[in-house]
Amino acid sequence: MISWIRELVNLNRGRVSSNDERTASSLLTTKMLALDFELTSLSIDSAHITSAGWVAGTGFRIEPHTSFYTTVRVSQSLEQSPVIHGLTDTALESGKPISSLMKQLYPLLGGHVLLCHHARLEVGLLCRLARQLQLAEITLVVVDTMQLAGYLLKKQGNTLSQDTLTLDNCRKRYKLPDAPMHNALTDAQACYELWLAQLSELGVKTNATVTALSHTGALSLKKIGKNAYK
């Protein structure tokens, strides 16, 4: 497993420059989509999605009616996933085919700012699947709450340890209620709640745009699709 601490080396990589209207939108009105995948492994090249969950919101408001969860049909070895995520063979057999899941999710990705905790995994899987399924090229605008947590802690002079940046520990620092882990939907909701707490700590101005987050290292853009580079 790649150390989460190592992933913060490029934390202050400068401002994101883009003509994408989502980066210029106000943090108060931009459409957000918190997304989580549960996987068979942490290898982007070989992992398979066993379940997916997401919830959308606008600015500082979560919209619970947009919540979605599904298991995903997997024919390959599940390794330890059923043990970790509590999934049964029956649940996985009745899950969506990955092509059906991507068909439902893909339009949302082009119209929202994507919110993930440890976004490397979700973005990596989306990139791989978009190429495999020959989907049209789109740009992901991504905010990583793990990277944002690292920025805020380093700004306070804190030393980061291996488990400092887990979703659970990040939430505990804001005294957010315990949330069941290893469920794609509850993890997505927990990520969105963490994001709102982080925004409060950042003290962003009411007219701040999404691009204002770029100095934290938490904002990134990634082209995905059949013609996109790895």
Architecture blueprint of SSEs:
Blueprint: E1 31-39, E2 49-58, E3 61-62, E4 68-71, H1 81-85, H2 89-93, H3 98-109, E5 113-116, H4 119-132, E6 138-144, H5 145-155, H6 167-173, H7 184-202, E7 219-224
Parallel strand pairs: 1-5, 5-6
Antiparallel strand pairs: 1-2, 2-3, 2-4, 6-7
Helix pairs in contact: 5-7
Account of the protein in words:
- The protein is an alpha/beta fold.
- It has one domain: Ribonuclease H-like superfamily/Ribonuclease H (Nucleotidyltransferase, domain 5, 2-Layer Sandwich).
- It contains seven helices and seven strands.
- Strands 1, 2, 3, 4, 5, 6 and 7 form a seven-stranded mixed sheet that branches.
- The longest helix is centred in the C-terminal third of the chain and has 19 residues.
- It comes from Salinimonas iocasae.
- Keywords: Exonuclease, Hydrolase, Nuclease.
- One of its GO terms (biological process) is DNA metabolic process.
- This is 3'-5' exonuclease.
Find the CATH topology: Nucleotidyltransferase, domain 5
**Biggest pleated-sheet summary:** 7 strands, mixed
**End-to-end Cα distance:** 20 Å
Radius of gyration (CA) equals 17 Å
Overall 3D form:
globular
- What's the CATH class, please? Alpha Beta
What is the CATH homology-level superfamily? Ribonuclease H-like superfamily/Ribonuclease H
Estimate the strand proportion: 15-25%
Q: Which ranges are low-confidence, i.e. pLDDT below 50, for 5 or more consecutive residues? A: 1-15
Structural class: alpha/beta
What is the number of independent domains?
1
Task: Report the strand count.
Answer: 7
The CATH architecture: 2-Layer Sandwich
Give helix % range.
25-40%
The number of distinct helices, counting runs of at least 4 residues, comes to 7
The SSE string, one letter per element, is EEEEHHHEHEHHHE
Mean pLDDT: 85
Keywords: Exonuclease, Hydrolase, Nuclease
Pfam families: RNase_T
GO cellular component, one term: cytosol
Domain Exonuclease: 31-204
